[in-house]
From TrEMBL:
<dbReference type="InterPro" id="IPR016098">
    <property type="entry name" value="CAP/MinC_C"/>
</dbReference>
<comment type="similarity">
    <text>Belongs to the TBCC family.</text>
</comment>
<dbReference type="GO" id="GO:0005737">
    <property type="term" value="C:cytoplasm"/>
</dbReference>
<feature type="region of interest" description="Disordered">
    <location>
        <begin position="86"/>
        <end position="120"/>
    </location>
</feature>
<dbReference type="InterPro" id="IPR012945">
    <property type="entry name" value="Tubulin-bd_cofactor_C_dom"/>
</dbReference>
<dbReference type="GO" id="GO:0007021">
    <property type="term" value="P:tubulin complex assembly"/>
</dbReference>
<dbReference type="InterPro" id="IPR017901">
    <property type="entry name" value="C-CAP_CF_C-like"/>
</dbReference>
<dbReference type="InterPro" id="IPR027684">
    <property type="entry name" value="TBCC"/>
</dbReference>
<dbReference type="Pfam" id="PF07986">
    <property type="entry name" value="TBCC"/>
</dbReference>
<feature type="domain" description="C-CAP/cofactor C-like">
    <location>
        <begin position="112"/>
        <end position="283"/>
    </location>
</feature>
<feature type="compositionally biased region" description="Low complexity">
    <location>
        <begin position="89"/>
        <end position="100"/>
    </location>
</feature>
<protein>
    <submittedName>
        <fullName>Tubulin-specific chaperone C</fullName>
    </submittedName>
</protein>
<dbReference type="GO" id="GO:0007023">
    <property type="term" value="P:post-chaperonin tubulin folding pathway"/>
</dbReference>
Length: 297
């Protein structure tokens, strides 16, 4: 059964996907419906964070707050643009001054009213009971799962509650969140940011990513190509191996030029693999290697 912290993380990751979707839609379509939905989601998410901050890992908190700031700025910019357009198109009044107070109030009516405490509480209930956008696979057993490049391009992908499965993600994902996998094999062609793994056991992972974060995971093998140091905490029995890009392309029948193009799009250096650079936060001895993982040359 998932802990309270895990449920908070799941909720925020799903909500972040929705925030990013709205942000993308607002770049080309500034309807009142989208603005209202964006404001509602901002208020709901901010209160959810305030009520559960102690349960949310710092990297998840940063991820969602960065997305919220971007959406807030877009909403503010749209409101300013509407206000400027209204003042300009209405023209000067007959007295030669600016447009009337009534006209200003009409424009400012688009600005959201400050929510009362009761309204905020009601909206918080909505975020925990609704079905936020989830992109990925969850609650699967003994299945072969696959996402192709067009499906995952620049999206945040989640793999949650999988047992005895094989999952392949071929394409350029933004981030990947993995939780509670058992006896599962996962191949991720490329994640341009971090891959976060929590509560997994007896799994085989093959990744290309900027950074790998592992928490509360046991008896797993990681064959990786990473451009930054990997971080692990509360984990043991891990094995790390080097992922060869040529071998990956050959085994998965991927064109090498296609793979290298994706790497460069994500600002990777295909000649620099930091697969052996690992920080174990539970092993602070500077003179001896951690017993929680091993390097397999």
């Amino acid at each position: 059964m998932a802990s309270e912290s895990e449920r908070c993380v799941d909720e925020l990751l799903f909500t972040t996907n929705r925030v990013n979707e709205l942000s993308q839609k607002l770049t080309s379509n500034q309807t009142n419906e989208l603005l209202v939905e964006s404001r509602r989601l901002i208020v709901e998410t901010q209160l959810f964070i305030a009520n559960n901050k102690s349960l949310i890992p710092s990297y998840i908190l940063k991820k969602v707050t960065d997305s919220l700031r971007q959406l807030e700025k877009q909403v503010e910019d749209v409101n300013k643009a509407k206000m400027t357009f209204k003042f300009t198109s209405s023209g000067p009044s007959r007295s030669g001054g600016c447009s009337s107070t009534e006209e200003k109030e009409e424009v400012l009516g688009d600005t959201p009213k400050k929510a009362t405490p009761q309204q905020v509480v009601d909206k918080t209930k909505a975020i925990t009971s609704s079905n936020p956008v989830f992109f990925g696979f969850r609650e699967r057993t003994n299945e072969e799962l696959c996402m192709n490049a067009s499906e995952v391009d620049s999206k945040d992908v989640s793999l949650v509650d999988l047992s005895d499965c094989t999952a392949k993600i071929i394409g350029l994902a933004n981030t990947l969140y993995i939780r509670n996998l058992k006896r599962t094999t996962v191949l991720v062609c490329l994640a341009c940011r971090a891959i976060t793994i929590t509560d997994c056991s007896d799994c085989d992972f093959k990744f290309v990513c900027q950074q790998l974060r592992i928490d509360s995971t046991t008896n797993c093998t990681f064959t990786i190509f990473t451009s930054a140091r990997s971080m692990l905490e509360s984990s043991k029995g891990l094995t790390f191996k080097k992922l060869d890009l040529d071998e990956l392309a050959k085994n998965e029948k991927i064109e090498r030029n296609w793979l290298i193009d994706y790497l460069r799009r994500a600002n990777f250096n295909e000649h620099q693999n930091n697969w052996k650079c690992i920080d174990d936060f539970d092993w602070l001895s500077p003179t001896s290697a951690s017993i929680n993982y091993k390097i397999c040359e």
